[in-house]
Structure formats: C-alpha cells, structure tokens
Amino acid sequence: SLAQEMCKRISSSGYDIDSVLLIGGATRTPVVKEKLSQVLSIDQVETMHVDVAVAMGASVKRGENKSVKKDVESNIVDSQEKSDLGSSSDASFHTVLLVLTITSFSVLLMLFIPSRGNNSYHSINLEKIKHEKFTVSGLDLTMMPISSGSFQMGSNDGDSNEKTISKNFWMGRTEVTQSQYKAIMGSNPSYFKGSYLPVENVSWHDAVAFCEKLTDRERRAGRLLHGYEYRLPTEAEWEYCCRAGTIGEYAGELHRMGWYYENSGTARLEDSDWGSCGDYDIKKIEEQLRNNKNKTHEVATKQANAWGLYDMHGNVWEWCQDWYGNYSSSSQTDPVGASGGSLRVNRGGGWYDCGYICRSAIRGRYDPSYRDSCVGFRVVLSPVHGL
Fold it and tell me: Do 254 and 260 meet the contact criterion of CB atoms below 8 Å apart?
C-alpha cells in the first residue's frame, strides 16, 4: 500500500525524473528519508524496505543505461498527460509500469547504490542478496554461498554433537593465496613462494588483520552489504563447510582432495612412516620431507568437496576465529568456542601431516602469534556478530 501511495502521488504531482529517483535513495540515511517524507507527505518511509528502494531507482540513478532513462522519462510524461486529462487510473497504471520497468532493469544490471552517512559506505548487491557465488572485485577471491543447516560435529561416537548454523554466509572457495594477501597487506611472508600458493607463515593476528583490511576496502568501495564483514570462520562453521554434508572421516577420497605427507613431494611417501601419527620420530619425518621436497601446492588443483570448496583437507592448516577449549557435546546453535584462553584453533591439517591429521574432525591449536610454513587461513563473509 505504501508503494501504491507513492506511485499515485508522484503521477498526480507532476514530479520529474529526479523526484522519482528520490525513492532510490530512500535508504537508512536520515537526510534522504526526511526529504522523501516531505516531498511525498508520507510518514512511513522508515517501513520501506531498502531492497525495494534500490530496485525502484537503481538502473537510472547512475545513468549507465540512457535508453532506460529515456523510457522512464517518457512514461512519466505519458502518465502526467493522462492525469491532466482526468484519467487518473491510466496514470496510475503507467506509473506502476514505470516502477516495474526500473525494477526489472535493476535486477538485470545488478547495480550498486551507495548510501552515505557517518563517513561509512555500504551498498546493496542484488546478486549477493540472492545468496549466490561472487568474486571480490580486483582480488580474484571467489566466495561460495553456504546455506544454514545442522551437522554432527567432532568424532565422539554416541554423543549428541549436533550443531546448527542458523544463518547463511559465504566462505572463500580456496585458502587465501599469496597474491591476494599481498594485494591487501602489501607483503608476502610465505616460506614457499608462488602467487597461487596459499599464503602461510602467518599468525592468527595477521589473518585477522587481513580480514579487517579487506572489510574496510570493500566498504569504502561501496561493495559490501550493510552490516556484513569479512572474518575468520568459527570452528563450527569450518567443520560444517569441510564436511559439506558428509559424516565420514573425510569429505571424499583424501588423495584426490588434499595435499599431505604422502603426495605433497616429488615421490610418494607412505603414511606408515609416521608410525601411529601420534608416536613418531619428528627428526626422521623432517629429513624425509626435505629430501622429498614436500611443499605447499597451488590452491584448487585437487578435487573440491560437494559445496565447491577446495583444500579443506591438507595443504595448510587454517586459522579459525575461536579460542581453543573443550566444546560442548550437547546440541548448540552457532557455537563460538571458549570465552577465552591462550591458544587459537586451526583446522584441516597440512602438507607435512599424515592422513589421519587431515580428517574433518581434527583440531589443532597454536599461540595466536605462532607462524609456520604449514599455517594459513581462508575467510568468510557474514553479518557482523549481533546483527
């Protein structure tokens, strides 16, 4: 009813295209809301959904499509003339048609409309609202849509370990690469060098700083959904994505999905050389790794899991947001780990680990300042905590 009232008042008042575009600016910016309220004499601007506002004004406000603007202006003139002749119902019809025209072009063009206020910039991207895969501009970082759901976390048979992820989010299709890290941070600390190798030798603090700088960059460019941020995944989010609907030790055949001790060097090694994977000769293992030239490998060169995520098993350990601690064996929704501690969680195993240590449920932990050639990270995009 609010949209219909706006259409009627625009068509009957003879406003030009700029007045129509005020609707496209009706975001949460107080000045714009106040102006729109005055022009249309409507007090309920606050109730108008920002997506509708963007759809009604997006494809014309930036002037990227002049033919659309011409059609819009023509439709306004037509509806004004019919209104002058006393045909108010025809005028309303043309105005509604105008709104539908703008909406359809907005969806097709998937334009951004930046909203400015308090020196912050954000935008609505219709593609992202639909929760689809997208690539971060200028970074070649593909973000995969992850739908909410529940899963059995950990490997404790018989316990009720069901965890629920209640909100949709996006996760990086790959571990952050060295070229991506350097583009944001200006340096590359990795031991093994290569643009498409995963960045490693980064601390938890380094990984968090990358997320914060990426968030700031995207907000300033008007490419980030309002109320969203890039961050490290929680441990529960990470395992949920690693499993991708599976319940076994791995999300598929390990040798097809991950780089680890057996296959990350020039010759194939045997997991049996690790002994029990808990009782091993570290000096012997390190010598074998050096002699066999085991190393990280370019991301996305192994098989992805069912949700299109690469290297969730092996290559490099991945930092998570959580403090390390015993997680509850009871059912939980959106668990975030321990409330404090001295160690941060990492997951997935790496290029120098035996297969057992690359399982979906394996948990690692390091001091947040720890750096190693087998430790990297990937990012998620989600609503800011509490929103």
Answer: yes
The pTM of this model reads 0.67
Q: How many residues does the chain have?
A: 387
Contact present, 171 and 309 (Cβ < 8 Å): yes
Residue whose tokens read 């890039």: 230
Tokens describing residue 8 = 């009627």
Average pLDDT of adjacent 10-residue blocks, the chain of 387 residues:
53 46 45 50 42 42 44 43 41 47 42 32 40 94 96 67 91 98 98 98 98 97 92 96 96 97 90 61 82 96 98 98 86 84 97 94 96 97 78
**Separation CA 328–CA 142 (nearest Å):** 33
Rg (CA), the chain: 26
